[in-house]
Design goal:
Length: about 210
């Protein structure tokens, strides 16, 4: 079965949480495409060479989730040759046998326009910044909530304004605003939408994990 779930949206909208849960529920493989850009961003040196030579060790670094890595990622993500170097791997992953969930910025628009499910996950910048700040330790975090908000807004602006694969919903994406939803409710809604598409594509059999 070839079946792709594309989950795009701005920083800290909940894409990762939703993607991991959907992949687990339906037994699909999951690719966090942001990790590719983060790994290129933190590697240093020539970003195009870094993207062409990305290794498993680069993706296993434990500093990829830092705010600095996020900023570095969005700076290298504007370079067309960097995006081109990462394209084939993501496309192959999306159409692998057994189903795949990919989360990022351009999965539904560029990487896999033929995806069977496209979600665009959003929430206000304030809600997203608070989530990221709590993830970083909240009151114990080195950064204030205000500085996390400024970083999230700067990164979103860079991602939206770039000419190559800018952050925007595909015309046929379903918008999922997680601002007023618990993580559980957002996961349930995403799972429901995947189930509808699986049934429409004739892939659901009795006893599959969806019901
Ligand atoms: O987890 P969060 O939403 O904060 O970020 P991420 O998904 O790890 O992505 C980090 C950065 O990589 C983004 O701000 C984008 O600049 C870039 N990115 C991209 O350009 N295209 C993708 N498919 C995924 C990430």
């Amino acid at each position: 079965m070839i079946f792709t779930v594309a989950i795009d949206g701005p920083a800290a909208a909940g894409k990762g949480t939703i993607s991991r849960a959907v992949a687990e529920r339906f037994g699909f493989a999951h690719l966090d495409t942001g990790a590719l850009y983060r790994a290129v961003g933190v590697k240093g040196g020539d970003p195009v060479a870094a993207a062409r030579g990305l290794s498993a060790a680069d993706l296993a670094r434990d500093d990829l989730r830092s705010l600095e890595a996020g900023q570095a990622a969005s700076r290298v993500a504007v370079i067309p040759e960097v995006r081109a170097a990462l394209l084939a791997f993501q496309r192959d992953f999306a159409r692998r046998e057994g189903g795949a969930v990919l989360d990022g910025r351009d999965i539904g628009t560029v990487i896999c326009p033929e995806a069977e499910v496209k979600l665009f996950v959003t929430a206000s910048a304030e809600v997203r910044a608070r989530r990221r700040w709590l993830e970083l330790g909240g009151e114990r975090a080195e950064k204030s909530l205000a500085s996390v908000l400024a970083e999230v807004e700067e990164r979103d602006r860079r991602d939206r304004d770039r000419s190559e694969a800018p952050l925007r919903p595909a015309a046929d994406a379903i918008l999922l605003d997680t601002g007023a939803l618990t993580a559980k409710a957002a996961i349930e809604e995403a799972g429901r939408l995947v189930l509808v598409a699986l049934r429409a594509a004739g892939h659901m059999r009795d006893g599959m994990a969806g019901d």
